[in-house]
Please model this.
Amino acid sequence: MSATTTGAVPAMPSGSLMRRIAWHCRYDEKRELWIGWWTLVAFYNLYGLLFFVLARTQPPPQPSLGPAEIVQWFDDRRSGLLYGYAIVSIVGGATAIMTATLAYTMRRMSVSRAFAYSYLLIYALATLPGMLIMGVACTVGAMRPDRDHALVSWLYDFAFLSFEGTMGVFLVGSLIWMAAVLLDKNRVFPMWFGYLNLCNALTEVVVAPAWIFRRGVFAWDGAIAWWINMAVFVTYTTVFLTLLRGMIVREDFGSGPLPELASDRAPASAGTLGAAR
Amino acid sequence: MTTVQVSVAPRADGSDERAASSEKPGGVRFVPGQPDMWAFVLFEALVFTSYFTVYVIRRTQSPGPFLQSQTHLDLHVGVFNTLVLLASSWSVARCVQATREGSFRAALNNAYLTMLFGVVFLVSKVREWATAIAQGFSFTTDEFFSFYYFLTGIHFLHLLIGFVVLGVAVSRIRSAAGAAPELVETCATYWHTIDFLWVLIFALLYVMR
Model:
């Protein structure tokens, strides 16, 4: 975390971790931004654990499975689905904090507020199909093992198509962020991040064939529609978390260009702020 | 505990430092245009390389059906499209050269010529798709045609974005002060990337046996 040491604010204690955390909670003027950033980091890690390890719904199974195989798929991970999506239903609201933190970066830019508002709205919508609806469908499928096989198959398709359906939202969201970064004069993010948003948006387009194919590289578990797309998304997420952290360190709560990190703009000039970690 | 120093010194010229970062301290630029665009080129090259790798693996696994379907593509149309895009790369390079020399009229003409070549490519590509569909070869016909429509389609999308990029260059060239060479170089870098990707797609879909 960071802090500015101005006025009557006492210096950050160098003792125990708890004392330092307490100091940040009380005096750090960027505490809300850091809470948002840590929420993002924690959520993405938890998301990976819940979806990949506990519920085991990712990587996605084959869309070409027959009814008996689908029922078997639910049987194999019944507990994981129930416990995993119970946790998802508890932490799902954290997406509001995450999206707000990302939208804040656009509010700090010199561009219209419409960018941040559009971004907020579109990702608020994405949470429903990408996480909650999928979770509910998987839970309903796992809850009663004696349910009709045809119904379980319906839930299986519904769950994974719902997840795939968020790709259009990520496409538009990435384009909004791209346009904001490229038009911004406040240097909140480097231009290459704007172009990286374009790359991410274009890989979301590639998911569209998953609605048509039930097997092969374009199906929802395919090499192109899922694996390459996921590799790009993980890279993109790692990059924006890193850049967002740098942005928070540089934040001066002004309205003009964001100050550069001294390490990027040596030598450090007069009027520097010490950001302690 | 570490201390991170944050400078709050105001910018002297108000210019966008991000766009001027391709210049080394000694004044020698190490890439034409913004380095940021080269990061995009590198990332897109990686993504397309992964698509091409998947295509080659799938083709290797069933060479017969791929070869059979490939014979339905018209190589002449593929060659024509390639030549048109190579010509567009030539005209956009002339646009960059004219901008560097301050000949903005010539730069504008070459930018328009590039757009014209781009439109010819788009029309030709749509006609090729229409012909293939009329012959019964759609996106779901077989795996080769799935790749054919996918790779040419995603390239088509990149080309459409290229018109926006060229539009930015034209807009700046038409402005009273004329465009900075770096901006036109950046736009040209994007356009050359589209051309480069097409050459690879052409080789994989039309030529490779």
Summary: The beta strands of chain A are 272-276. Residues 113-143 of chain A form the longest helix (31 residues).
